[in-house]
Structure formats: structure tokens, C-alpha cells
Amino acid sequence: VGRVENLDKGDVTATSVFLKREPPIVHTQNGDITYYRVTATRTSDDRFAENPANNPIVKDVDPAADPADPVTLNFDGLEKYVDYDFVVEPHNSAGAGPGRKISQRTAEDAPGK
User: Fold this and answer.
1) What SS3 state is found at 28?
2) Is the Cβ–Cβ distance between 1 and 95 less than 8 Å?
3) If you ran DSSP here, which 8-state letter would residue 111 be given?
4) Which of 40, 41, 92, 102 is disulfide-compatible with 31, CB 3.0–4.6 A?
């Protein structure tokens, strides 16, 4: 499976990050992409965190109806004002392709929220 192309950040809120990606180059895919695995790992050092760095959040996302279309992936359920590493891996019947990583901090929220 080929590597995800052009992984970028979209909108960022206090509890979600939108990731924009393009599929692997067709001749590197070894078959149709069946899903994308997105892993968010907390990189901020906070011992009182709800989800410490050693407990990544993993989501499997269906590919677009047209595999050539760029897709925005919404990764929600994150903590406010926390640094995360996101890794996106394409999967198909041959297995997993190499992951592409991008880092992002979630936004701050209004005081008292």
C-alpha cells in the first residue's frame, strides 16, 4: 500500500482536529484502499491528563466514494489545548501502508469551560 499524500491540517477546535489528505498514488496501492487508520497520540506532558501519551486514540475511517478525491477526516473527542501527533495509514487487502505524521495542538476554550 502506498503512502498517504499531502496530509495537512484543516480547522482546529478545542476538542477536534480536521485532517486533509489525498490518497496514495494509484500505482503504489496494490489494490483498493479499504480504510484509513488514524492514530492520535498525546505529546503534551501532563500527568493529570484524561488520556495520557501511552494511551493513543485510534479511529478507522472509510475511504471516499471516489478514491482519487481528497478527504477531510474529523478527529474529535480530544482534550483542550493539548499537543497531539496524528498518524494516518492506508490499509487494503495487502496490509498497511506507511504512515504519515502531522502534529497539532487543540485550541484553547473559553474560561470556565
Assistant:
1) helix
2) yes
3) T
4) 92
Show Cβ contacts of residue 91 under 8 Å, excluding neighbours closer than 6 positions: 1, 33, 34, 35, 36, 37, 60, 97
77 vs 111: CA distance, rounded Å: 19
Q: Is 16 exposed, middle or buried (0-12, 13-18, 19+ CB in 10 A)?
A: middle
Place of cell 493513543: 56
Report the alpha-carbon distance of residue 35 to residue 95 in Å, rounded: 11
What is the spatial distance between Cα 98 and Cα 89, in angstroms, rounded to a whole number?
6
Question: In 3D, which of 13, 25, 1, 32 has the Cα closest to residue 74?
Answer: 13
pLDDT for residue 102: 94
Q: What average pLDDT is seen over the chain?
A: 82
Place of cell 498514488: 25
